[in-house]
Sequence to fold (223 residues):
Amino acid sequence: MPLLSELVIRTYRDLADEAKAVFSTLQIEDFIRGGIADLNRVAPTDTMELIEFTTDPDTGQIAAYGYDIGIELPYRVEAMRLSDGYTTPIPEADIGQTGLTGFTFRKTATGGYIEFPGWYLKGFALSEGVIRVHGYAQRPLPYTVGAVDPMVGLSQDEEYAVRSYAKSAGYDMLAHDRSLFAQWQGQTNNSDVSPTQMMQMASSAKQEWDRHRGLIRVVRRYW
Fold:
């Protein structure tokens, strides 16, 4: 998993601007975040999250029935017995059902909110089991805050996809901004590249990204 600064350097190299003479670092970081956002749309992370229960400090009993989670689209919620790993699915409650017997879920800005029937959690033994949520989550968008250089949670294949997007975005900007293109020609010793060739390079980079996003697209599982 690369640091954001490492990904920025590699993207500069992809755009033939290793001297950082044409694009600003903020622009490159925006290209990268745009690539991660698009990656999230076509290939969200398949992950699992344990419910971290809120308990009463006096009794040790579960004190809250609803929890924020990072998963925005669950496809399996289950109770797992710690002694032997045996799992029991918890179904999603039907809309309009009285005396809810399963979890309810709604999507939020940062993931989702999952709630369980009070009667179910009151009888849930924390020492004997856990509740796991399987589903799809968004990769966080990396921002540099002060001197902190954030880690970008991407695999090698995902990094290639994000860099393909960033390259496409950078070339598209050069193809539609003659002043910036002229600066890129002079600063990167690419004076032999014509505006027509740059349009072709931008189109080729876009096609490369389109091909790659088709290969990494995730067919989502549902409950």
